[in-house]
From TrEMBL:
Occurrences of domain Class II aldolase/adducin N-terminal (ranges): 28-212
Name listed for the protein in its UniProt record: Class II aldolase/adducin family protein
Annotated family: Belongs to the aldolase class II family.
Signal sequence, start to end: none
Pfam families xref list: Aldolase_II
Length: 265
C-alpha cells in the first residue's frame, strides 16, 4: 500500500521574538479570525482582508499576505503595514515573496486612520453578502438577528477600491455603525476587538442568508412594527449589553486548537 505524502505547508520562520508580547497576541487572534472566516464558509480564496491595529504602535496594523489562503494563515505570516501601505515588518516567504494587496490598505487603512477606537476590520465577498449588496432594498430587518443591523451603513459602488480618493466617502458612509454594506460588492464589519468584529460579521452573514432564503419562498414577509425594531436594535447596542465576543471567543479558539493549532505559529 502506498504511503500518503504529507500535505504541503508553508514553512514561515516565527516572528514571536521580533515583536512585542502584545503584538504577538494580536497576531494569534488575527490569524485565528482568518481561520474562523474560512471555517464558517466566508472566505474567497486569497481575496479580501481582515486587519487589526498593532497595540502601542500608532498608525500600524496587521493584514494578510496576498497569496495565502485563509486556512493557512498563521501569526507569523501576517504583514505589518502603516495606514499609507508602507511595509513595516514582513515575514520571510522565501521565493514566493508575497506582498499586500492594494485594496487591503486602501479600505482598511482608511478606517484605522479615521477611527482609533476600532481595532479590527473584516471585509468579505460571500455569495449571500454580494447578493444582498446588489438588492435595492438592502438588508431587511425581517428577523431578530437582522434587527441588530437596523442602522447599517451603505457605500455606493464606484469601482475596485484602489484609489485613496475613495477613502473619505467610505469612512463617511460607515459613520458610527459597526457594519457597512458595500453595494454591488460585499460586506464589512468593524469592532473594538477582533472577537467583536468577527461576531458582527458572523451575524451579518446569517442575516443575509436568512433574507435570501425568505425572499426565495415568494411569500409575504411578516412586517415587524417600527417601535419593536427600534427596541430590539437598542438591546443589541454596547450600552445595554456586554461586549460581543467576550463569551464565545475562547470557545472558538478551543475549536481551532482541536482542528488545527498551527494558526498560533
Amino acid at each position: 500500500m502506498l504511503e500518503q505524502s504529507p500535505m504541503p505547508v508553508l514553512d514561515i520562520p516565527s516572528l514571536r521574538d521580533k515583536v512585542s508580547p502584545a503584538e504577538w497576541q494580536a497576531r494569534v487572534n488575527l490569524a485565528a479570525c482568518y481561520r474562523l472566516i474560512a471555517l464558517y464558509g466566508m472566505s474567497d480564496m486569497i481575496a479580501n482582508h481582515i486587519s487589526c491595529r498593532v497595540p502601542g504602535e500608532e498608525g500600524a496594523f496587521l493584514i494578510n499576505a496576498y497569496g495565502l489562503l485563509y486556512e493557512e494563515i498563521t501569526a507569523s505570516s501576517l504583514i505589518k503595514i502603516d495606514v499609507k501601505g508602507n511595509i513595516l515588518l514582513k515575514p520571510d516567504f522565501g521565493d514566493l515573496n508575497y506582498g499586500v494587496n492594494r485594496a487591503g490598505f486602501v479600505i482598511h487603512g482608511a478606517i484605522h486612520e479615521a477611527s482609533h477606537e476600532i481595532d479590527c476590520v473584516i471585509h468579505t465577498h460571500t455569495w449571500p453578502g454580494m447578493a444582498v449588496s446588489s438588492l435595492e432594498c438592502g438588508l431587511l430587518p425581517m428577523n431578530q438577528t437582522a434587527m441588530r443591523f437596523l442602522k447599517i451603513g451603505y457605500h455606493d459602488y464606484a469601482g475596485v477600491v484602489l484609489d485613496t480618493a475613495m477613502q473619505a466617502k467610505l469612512v463617511e458612509d460607515l459613520g458610527s455603525n459597526n457594519a457597512l454594506i458595500l453595494r454591488n460588492h460585499g460586506l464589512l464589519t468593524v469592532g473594538r476587538t477582533i472577537a467583536e468584529a468577527f461576531n458582527a460579521m458572523h451575524r451579518l452573514e446569517l442575516s443575509c442568508r436568512a433574507q435570501l432564503a425568505a425572499l426565495a419562498c415568494n411569500a409575504k414577509i411578516i412586517q415587524v412594527p417600527q417601535h419593536v425594531l427600534e427596541e430590539t436594535y437598542m438591546n443589541y447596542q454596547p450600552q445595554t449589553r456586554r461586549p460581543y465576543g467576550v463569551m464565545e471567543w475562547p470557545a472558538l479558539l478551543r475549536r481551532l486548537d482541536r482542528l488545527d493549532p498551527s494558526f498560533r505559529n
